[in-house]
Each structure stands twice: as structure tokens, then as C-alpha cells.
Design brief:
Shape: globular
Helix content: 25-40%
CATH class of the largest domain: Alpha Beta
CATH architecture of the largest domain: 3-Layer(aba) Sandwich
Order of helices and strands: EHEHEHEHHHEHEHHEHEEEE
Number of strands: 11
Structural class: alpha/beta
Number of helices: 10
Radius of gyration: 20 Å
Number of domains: 2
Distance between the termini: 41 Å
CATH topology of the largest domain: Rossmann fold
Strand content: 15-25%
Length: 290
């Protein structure tokens, strides 16, 4: 496995692979890798083929964190990440620095001033709760696409809205890359794998399973109902269930159209559910189709 730390070095490699006709599968991450990330690597290998190349990037992107969020304390363990990527058969681990990703910001009197903004899908859900978050996501992903030149980019379905926004960005800006959404991996009690799960205390960790329990309750209700259910009434039931856990506090629970991300008045087969919940100080997200 090769490790690359400069944008020019990554672009040089990617252009060579392109000239040789090799497919490139790409998994962008913020590090602190877990089994969910490794499942994305496996999917990227399937997409690129045995003769292709798989690139994993590790970069904790400051642009997608709000001023009161956890950028500075986001979990990092590069040595462990390197070992996991090597064992997973990654060809290149791309680890750019802030100076490489946003060089203008380090120039006296300068600042990074160019952003990529998706202006429709990003307005709701995470976009409403975390202003400017998706501006940071689309900007860094667009930069990474220009640096890695992937044929396939794999994202986790746990971040459903993010994958949809990146898909829209790639379509609208003609990036020659196929966006692949890989299934969410879960713990035995249903909690979606996330690097932020590390923040949960011993008392909070069992309570975090309430997100999955809420999803399961919603699915059962929708599937058992002879006709569509009022979304607002079902949302209130889920909020009450979630907040029955002493450490849990709901940020949002929403039923929406999976294609447009617009809210729906009725929950039925094909509707999508997304939720964001604080368990203690840790903010967790999850989603599922009904």
C-alpha cells in the first residue's frame, strides 16, 4: 500500500492509472475507521475490479463542522487506520494536510473562498440542523474527485442525504464518476456503526440503540396499517419512544420522499425515515426505508 500526502502526487498517480486504463474505486473518509468503512472498501474493490485501484482518503474536513461542533476532538488514530487499510487491500491511502487541501487559507491575507453548493436537497434534515455543513461536504468531495479522478465513489447509506447530495452534485457538474451507496452496517443491537459512537459513555451506549428501535417500530406500524398513516402522528409516537431513554434528546424525526427529500404528509411503503438524536452530548443519525 502506498501512502500519498500531496494533491500533486495523488493527481499524478491517478492520471497514470487512467492512461493505463485502470479503474479507480474511491472511499472518502474522515478516518477512525471501523467495519462500516471496510465494507465500503470491499465495495470499491468490486467496482474497480481486481486489476483496478482502490483509494481511501482520510481527511477531517474543517469546512463541514460548525463552530460549536467536534472538529478538534473528532477521533483520530492514523496508525490503526493504516493497518486496517493495508489488511483490506487498499492500494493508496491519501492523507492530505489542511495546507494541501486549502492552501489559500494559509497565505497571509488569503482565505479559501470558492465553494460548491447544492441548493435543493441540502435545505432540509441535516442541512436545516447544521447550516453550512453540506457546503463543506460538497466542496471537499468535489476537490477529492478532482484529485483522485475516481470512476466509482462509495458512500455509506447511513448518511442517506449526503449520498443523495453528492449524487446530485456529480450529475449537475458532470463529474465522470458513479456514486455507489453501500448498506449500513450495525452492531448486534442495531446501532449503526459510526466513528462518533466512541463518544458514548458506558451508561449511554445501550440507550443509543433506541434509534434502531424507533426505526423498527415505524416499519412495523407502516407495514401493518391497511392504509397510509399520518406522518405527524407517527413522528410524535417515535419522539416519545426515543425520549423515554433518559439520555436521549430528539433533534429531528422526519418522513420524506426518498427521491426529492421533501416531507410527506403520509407514511407508507416507499417512504423514507431519517432521525437525528442526541444521546448525552453525542449526536447520532440513522435512516431507513419503510
Amino acid at each position: 500500500m502506498r501512502q500519498v500526502t500531496t494533491v500533486s502526487g495523488m493527481q499524478r498517480l491517478a492520471r497514470r492509472w487512467k492512461a493505463e486504463g485502470q479503474g479507480i474505486g474511491f472511499v472518502p473518509t474522515m478516518g477512525y475507521l471501523h467495519a462500516g468503512h471496510l465494507s465500503l472498501v470491499k465495495k470499491a474493490r468490486q467496482c474497480a475490479g481486481d486489476d483496478g485501484k482502490v483509494v481511501v482518503s482520510i481527511y477531517v474536513n474543517p469546512l463541514q463542522f460548525g463552530p460549536q461542533e467536534d472538529w478538534s476532538r473528532y477521533p483520530r488514530d492514523l496508525a490503526r487506520d493504516q493497518k486496517l487499510c493495508l489488511e483490506a487491500g487498499v492500494d493508496v491511502l491519501f492523507i492530505p494536510t489542511d495546507e494541501e487541501m486549502y492552501p489559500a487559507a494559509g497565505v497571509p491575507g488569503g482565505a479559501h473562498s470558492t465553494y460548491v453548493i447544492e441548493d435543493t436537497l441540502s435545505r432540509r434534515l441535516e442541512g436545516a440542523s447544521r447550516p453550512a455543513h453540506f457546503r463543506g461536504v460538497t466542496t471537499v468531495v468535489a476537490k477529492l474527485f478532482n484529485q483522485v479522478l475516481p470512476d466509482y465513489a462509495v458512500f455509506g447509506a447511513k448518511d442517506y442525504q449526503q449520498a443523495a447530495i453528492v449524487q446530485r452534485m456529480a450529475r449537475d457538474l458532470n463529474f465522470p464518476v458513479k456514486i455507489v451507496a453501500a448498506p449500513t452496517l450495525r452492531e448486534a443491537d442495531g446501532l449503526a456503526l459510526s466513528s462518533r459512537n466512541k463518544y458514548l459513555s458506558e451508561e449511554e451506549r445501550p440507550q443509543a440503540a433506541i434509534l434502531w428501535q424507533a426505526i423498527q417500530q415505524a416499519k412495523k406500524a407502516v407495514q401493518a396499517a391497511p392504509e397510509p398513516l399520518a406522518a405527524d402522528a407517527l413522528k410524535q409516537q417515535l419522539v416519545q419512544l426515543i425520549q423515554s431513554q433518559p439520555a436521549a434528546r430528539v433533534d429531528y424525526v422526519d418522513f420524506f420522499n426518498p427521491a426529492t427529500l421533501e416531507p410527506v404528509a403520509q407514511a407508507q411503503h416507499g417512504t423514507h425515515l431519517a432521525l437525528a438524536v442526541y444521546v448525552g452530548k453525542t449526536r447520532l443519525i440513522d435512516n431507513a426505508g419503510m
